[in-house]
Amino acid sequence: MSTIAFIGTGIMGKPMAANLQKAGHQLLFSTHFNEAPQDLVAAGGKTFPSVQAATEQADVVILMVPNTPQVEDVLFGDNGVEAGLASGGAQGKLVIDMSSISPIETKQFAARIKESGASYLDAPVSGGEVGAVNGSLSIMVGGSQSDFDQAKSLFEIMGQNITLVGDNGAGQTCKVANQIIVALNIEAVSEALVFASKAGANPARVREALLGGFASSKILEVHGDRMIKGTFDPGFKIALHQKDLNLAISGAEVLGVSLPNTIKAKELLDDCAEQGGSDWDHSAMIKAIEKLADHSIREE
Question: Are the beta carbons of 224 and 193 closer than 8 angstroms?
Fold first, then answer.
Protein backbone atom coordinates (compact mmCIF):
# COMPACT_ATOMS: atom_id res chain seq x y z
CA MET A 1 0.00 0.00 0.00
CA SER A 2 1.23 3.48 -0.88
CA THR A 3 1.12 6.70 1.07
CA ILE A 4 -0.42 9.20 -1.35
CA ALA A 5 -0.53 12.98 -1.09
CA PHE A 6 -3.69 13.76 -3.06
CA ILE A 7 -3.94 17.43 -4.08
CA GLY A 8 -7.28 18.55 -5.52
CA THR A 9 -10.46 16.97 -4.16
CA GLY A 10 -13.16 18.60 -6.29
CA ILE A 11 -15.88 17.02 -8.42
CA MET A 12 -13.45 14.53 -9.96
CA GLY A 13 -10.63 14.40 -7.43
CA LYS A 14 -12.65 13.52 -4.35
CA PRO A 15 -14.18 10.28 -5.68
CA MET A 16 -10.82 9.29 -7.19
CA ALA A 17 -9.19 9.81 -3.80
CA ALA A 18 -12.02 7.93 -2.09
CA ASN A 19 -11.49 4.89 -4.32
CA LEU A 20 -7.77 4.86 -3.50
CA GLN A 21 -8.59 5.08 0.20
CA LYS A 22 -11.15 2.25 -0.01
CA ALA A 23 -8.47 0.11 -1.64
CA GLY A 24 -6.31 0.53 1.47
CA HIS A 25 -3.92 3.33 0.54
CA GLN A 26 -3.06 6.00 3.11
CA LEU A 27 -4.16 9.44 1.90
CA LEU A 28 -2.55 12.72 2.86
CA PHE A 29 -4.24 16.08 2.20
CA SER A 30 -3.01 19.65 2.21
CA THR A 31 -5.23 22.33 3.75
CA HIS A 32 -3.30 25.18 2.10
CA PHE A 33 -6.23 26.09 -0.19
CA ASN A 34 -9.35 24.27 0.98
CA GLU A 35 -10.23 22.09 3.92
CA ALA A 36 -9.77 18.38 3.30
CA PRO A 37 -12.98 16.36 2.76
CA GLN A 38 -14.16 15.53 6.24
CA ASP A 39 -15.49 12.09 5.33
CA LEU A 40 -12.11 11.06 3.91
CA VAL A 41 -10.34 12.42 6.98
CA ALA A 42 -12.77 10.55 9.22
CA ALA A 43 -11.96 7.38 7.27
CA GLY A 44 -8.25 7.74 8.05
CA GLY A 45 -6.94 10.51 5.81
CA LYS A 46 -4.32 12.80 7.36
CA THR A 47 -4.10 16.56 6.91
CA PHE A 48 -1.05 18.80 6.56
CA PRO A 49 -0.78 22.60 6.44
CA SER A 50 1.01 22.65 3.07
CA VAL A 51 1.68 20.64 -0.07
CA GLN A 52 5.33 20.57 0.96
CA ALA A 53 4.54 18.92 4.29
CA ALA A 54 2.29 16.32 2.64
CA THR A 55 4.88 15.61 -0.05
CA GLU A 56 7.58 15.01 2.57
CA GLN A 57 5.55 12.11 4.00
CA ALA A 58 4.30 10.63 0.72
CA ASP A 59 5.51 7.91 -1.63
CA VAL A 60 3.27 9.22 -4.42
CA VAL A 61 1.89 12.71 -5.09
CA ILE A 62 -1.26 12.96 -7.24
CA LEU A 63 -2.55 16.28 -8.57
CA MET A 64 -6.12 16.80 -9.80
CA VAL A 65 -6.53 20.57 -10.13
CA PRO A 66 -8.29 22.73 -12.75
CA ASN A 67 -5.64 24.23 -15.05
CA THR A 68 -2.00 24.75 -15.95
CA PRO A 69 -1.35 27.68 -13.57
CA GLN A 70 -2.73 25.71 -10.62
CA VAL A 71 -0.52 22.72 -11.45
CA GLU A 72 2.51 25.00 -11.69
CA ASP A 73 1.68 26.59 -8.35
CA VAL A 74 1.19 23.24 -6.59
CA LEU A 75 4.42 21.88 -8.04
CA PHE A 76 6.72 24.89 -7.80
CA GLY A 77 5.04 27.54 -5.65
CA ASP A 78 5.99 28.34 -2.07
CA ASN A 79 5.69 25.21 0.09
CA GLY A 80 4.88 23.11 -2.98
CA VAL A 81 5.83 19.67 -4.25
CA GLU A 82 9.32 20.66 -5.37
CA ALA A 83 10.07 22.06 -1.92
CA GLY A 84 8.77 18.85 -0.33
CA LEU A 85 10.98 16.72 -2.55
CA ALA A 86 13.97 18.84 -1.57
CA SER A 87 13.26 18.70 2.17
CA GLY A 88 11.83 15.18 2.44
CA GLY A 89 13.86 13.35 -0.19
CA ALA A 90 12.93 12.73 -3.81
CA GLN A 91 14.49 9.35 -4.54
CA GLY A 92 11.86 6.74 -5.35
CA LYS A 93 8.94 9.18 -5.19
CA LEU A 94 6.46 9.48 -8.02
CA VAL A 95 4.55 12.61 -9.00
CA ILE A 96 1.42 12.03 -11.10
CA ASP A 97 -0.48 14.95 -12.62
CA MET A 98 -4.00 13.80 -13.49
CA SER A 99 -5.22 17.32 -14.30
CA SER A 100 -5.91 18.37 -17.91
CA ILE A 101 -3.32 21.00 -18.84
CA SER A 102 -0.96 22.22 -21.55
CA PRO A 103 1.12 19.42 -23.16
CA ILE A 104 3.98 21.87 -23.80
CA GLU A 105 4.20 23.05 -20.20
CA THR A 106 3.75 19.46 -18.99
CA LYS A 107 7.04 18.54 -20.64
CA GLN A 108 8.72 21.44 -18.83
CA PHE A 109 7.17 20.48 -15.48
CA ALA A 110 8.24 16.85 -15.93
CA ALA A 111 11.84 17.79 -16.71
CA ARG A 112 12.04 20.02 -13.63
CA ILE A 113 10.58 17.40 -11.27
CA LYS A 114 12.86 14.70 -12.66
CA GLU A 115 15.87 16.95 -12.05
CA SER A 116 15.01 16.67 -8.34
CA GLY A 117 15.37 12.87 -8.50
CA ALA A 118 11.65 12.02 -8.47
CA SER A 119 9.68 10.43 -11.32
CA TYR A 120 6.84 12.10 -13.21
CA LEU A 121 3.78 10.96 -15.14
CA ASP A 122 1.09 13.04 -16.80
CA ALA A 123 -2.13 11.02 -16.63
CA PRO A 124 -5.25 13.04 -17.51
CA VAL A 125 -8.60 11.26 -17.41
CA SER A 126 -11.90 11.05 -19.24
CA GLY A 127 -15.21 9.74 -17.98
CA GLY A 128 -16.59 12.59 -15.90
CA GLU A 129 -17.90 12.42 -12.35
CA VAL A 130 -19.67 9.10 -13.01
CA GLY A 131 -16.42 7.50 -14.15
CA ALA A 132 -14.56 8.94 -11.17
CA VAL A 133 -17.13 7.56 -8.73
CA ASN A 134 -17.31 4.15 -10.40
CA GLY A 135 -13.57 3.80 -10.90
CA SER A 136 -14.13 3.43 -14.64
CA LEU A 137 -12.14 6.39 -15.97
CA SER A 138 -10.08 6.27 -19.13
CA ILE A 139 -6.53 7.26 -18.18
CA MET A 140 -4.10 8.57 -20.81
CA VAL A 141 -0.53 8.40 -19.58
CA GLY A 142 2.68 10.12 -20.63
CA GLY A 143 6.01 8.98 -19.18
CA SER A 144 8.43 6.08 -19.05
CA GLN A 145 7.41 2.44 -19.11
CA SER A 146 9.00 1.83 -15.70
CA ASP A 147 7.13 4.73 -14.06
CA PHE A 148 3.91 3.59 -15.73
CA ASP A 149 4.43 0.08 -14.38
CA GLN A 150 4.97 1.51 -10.88
CA ALA A 151 1.73 3.49 -11.05
CA LYS A 152 -0.47 0.99 -12.89
CA SER A 153 -1.96 -0.63 -9.79
CA LEU A 154 -3.11 2.83 -8.63
CA PHE A 155 -4.55 3.62 -12.05
CA GLU A 156 -6.46 0.33 -12.03
CA ILE A 157 -8.29 1.45 -8.89
CA MET A 158 -9.41 4.69 -10.57
CA GLY A 159 -9.96 3.55 -14.15
CA GLN A 160 -10.46 0.73 -16.62
CA ASN A 161 -9.06 1.86 -19.97
CA ILE A 162 -5.45 2.69 -19.07
CA THR A 163 -2.98 3.43 -21.86
CA LEU A 164 0.66 4.51 -21.90
CA VAL A 165 0.50 6.84 -24.90
CA GLY A 166 4.14 7.93 -25.02
CA ASP A 167 6.68 10.10 -23.23
CA ASN A 168 5.83 12.99 -20.89
CA GLY A 169 3.32 15.29 -22.56
CA ALA A 170 1.77 12.54 -24.69
CA GLY A 171 -0.94 11.91 -22.10
CA GLN A 172 -1.96 15.55 -22.15
CA THR A 173 -1.87 15.62 -25.96
CA CYS A 174 -4.20 12.61 -26.00
CA LYS A 175 -6.56 14.34 -23.54
CA VAL A 176 -6.76 17.43 -25.75
CA ALA A 177 -7.67 15.17 -28.68
CA ASN A 178 -10.29 13.51 -26.47
CA GLN A 179 -11.83 16.86 -25.61
CA ILE A 180 -12.06 17.82 -29.27
CA ILE A 181 -14.00 14.64 -29.99
CA VAL A 182 -16.26 15.04 -26.95
CA ALA A 183 -17.07 18.68 -27.73
CA LEU A 184 -17.93 17.94 -31.36
CA ASN A 185 -20.09 15.00 -30.33
CA ILE A 186 -21.97 17.17 -27.84
CA GLU A 187 -22.47 19.76 -30.58
CA ALA A 188 -23.74 17.10 -33.01
CA VAL A 189 -26.22 15.64 -30.50
CA SER A 190 -27.38 19.16 -29.59
CA GLU A 191 -28.01 20.07 -33.23
CA ALA A 192 -29.80 16.79 -33.94
CA LEU A 193 -32.15 17.02 -30.96
CA VAL A 194 -32.98 20.70 -31.58
CA PHE A 195 -33.60 19.98 -35.28
CA ALA A 196 -35.85 17.04 -34.47
CA SER A 197 -37.76 18.88 -31.75
CA LYS A 198 -38.41 21.99 -33.82
CA ALA A 199 -39.59 19.77 -36.67
CA GLY A 200 -42.23 18.41 -34.30
CA ALA A 201 -40.70 15.09 -33.24
CA ASN A 202 -40.42 14.02 -29.61
CA PRO A 203 -36.71 14.41 -28.77
CA ALA A 204 -36.78 11.63 -26.16
CA ARG A 205 -38.15 9.17 -28.70
CA VAL A 206 -35.70 10.40 -31.35
CA ARG A 207 -32.84 9.73 -28.92
CA GLU A 208 -34.22 6.27 -28.14
CA ALA A 209 -34.40 5.42 -31.84
CA LEU A 210 -30.91 6.72 -32.58
CA LEU A 211 -29.37 4.71 -29.72
CA GLY A 212 -30.13 1.58 -31.75
CA GLY A 213 -28.31 2.72 -34.88
CA PHE A 214 -24.99 3.91 -36.23
CA ALA A 215 -25.44 7.34 -34.59
CA SER A 216 -25.33 5.76 -31.14
CA SER A 217 -22.63 7.08 -28.80
CA LYS A 218 -21.89 7.55 -25.13
CA ILE A 219 -22.61 11.26 -25.60
CA LEU A 220 -26.04 10.52 -27.06
CA GLU A 221 -26.74 8.04 -24.27
CA VAL A 222 -25.61 10.11 -21.27
CA HIS A 223 -25.62 13.74 -22.37
CA GLY A 224 -28.59 13.35 -24.68
CA ASP A 225 -30.58 12.29 -21.62
CA ARG A 226 -29.27 15.31 -19.70
CA MET A 227 -30.31 17.62 -22.55
CA ILE A 228 -33.84 16.24 -22.68
CA LYS A 229 -34.31 16.38 -18.89
CA GLY A 230 -32.46 19.69 -18.45
CA THR A 231 -30.24 18.25 -15.71
CA PHE A 232 -27.16 20.42 -16.11
CA ASP A 233 -25.59 20.08 -12.66
CA PRO A 234 -21.92 19.64 -13.50
CA GLY A 235 -20.24 16.37 -14.07
CA PHE A 236 -17.77 18.38 -16.16
CA LYS A 237 -18.13 22.15 -16.19
CA ILE A 238 -18.50 24.34 -19.28
CA ALA A 239 -15.59 26.45 -18.00
CA LEU A 240 -13.27 23.43 -17.92
CA HIS A 241 -14.19 22.40 -21.45
CA GLN A 242 -13.59 25.97 -22.61
CA LYS A 243 -10.12 25.67 -21.11
CA ASP A 244 -9.47 22.37 -22.87
CA LEU A 245 -10.57 23.68 -26.26
CA ASN A 246 -8.38 26.74 -25.76
CA LEU A 247 -5.48 24.31 -25.30
CA ALA A 248 -6.47 22.59 -28.55
CA ILE A 249 -6.77 25.83 -30.50
CA SER A 250 -3.52 27.33 -29.20
CA GLY A 251 -1.71 24.05 -29.83
CA ALA A 252 -3.11 23.88 -33.36
CA GLU A 253 -1.81 27.38 -34.08
CA VAL A 254 1.70 26.28 -33.08
CA LEU A 255 1.42 23.12 -35.19
CA GLY A 256 -0.16 24.80 -38.19
CA VAL A 257 -3.29 22.65 -37.95
CA SER A 258 -6.80 23.89 -38.81
CA LEU A 259 -9.55 23.03 -36.32
CA PRO A 260 -12.62 24.82 -37.72
CA ASN A 261 -15.26 22.80 -35.88
CA THR A 262 -13.35 22.93 -32.61
CA ILE A 263 -13.33 26.72 -32.90
CA LYS A 264 -17.10 26.72 -33.47
CA ALA A 265 -17.68 24.42 -30.48
CA LYS A 266 -15.60 26.77 -28.34
CA GLU A 267 -17.77 29.70 -29.48
CA LEU A 268 -20.90 27.78 -28.42
CA LEU A 269 -19.40 27.10 -25.00
CA ASP A 270 -18.49 30.79 -24.77
CA ASP A 271 -22.13 31.66 -25.47
CA CYS A 272 -23.25 29.36 -22.64
CA ALA A 273 -20.80 31.07 -20.30
CA GLU A 274 -22.20 34.46 -21.34
CA GLN A 275 -25.66 33.13 -20.41
CA GLY A 276 -24.30 32.58 -16.90
CA GLY A 277 -23.52 28.92 -17.43
CA SER A 278 -19.80 28.59 -16.72
CA ASP A 279 -20.63 26.06 -13.99
CA TRP A 280 -23.22 24.16 -16.05
CA ASP A 281 -22.37 20.68 -17.26
CA HIS A 282 -20.89 20.76 -20.76
CA SER A 283 -23.97 18.97 -22.10
CA ALA A 284 -25.64 22.37 -21.67
CA MET A 285 -23.97 23.38 -24.94
CA ILE A 286 -27.43 22.61 -26.32
CA LYS A 287 -28.61 25.88 -24.77
CA ALA A 288 -26.47 27.78 -27.28
CA ILE A 289 -27.98 25.78 -30.18
CA GLU A 290 -31.47 26.35 -28.75
CA LYS A 291 -30.78 30.08 -28.56
CA LEU A 292 -29.79 30.16 -32.23
CA ALA A 293 -32.96 28.21 -33.15
CA ASP A 294 -35.18 30.24 -30.79
CA HIS A 295 -36.49 26.89 -29.57
CA SER A 296 -36.08 24.73 -26.46
CA ILE A 297 -36.45 20.96 -26.59
CA ARG A 298 -37.81 21.08 -23.04
CA GLU A 299 -40.97 22.69 -21.67
CA GLU A 300 -39.37 25.46 -19.60
Answer: yes
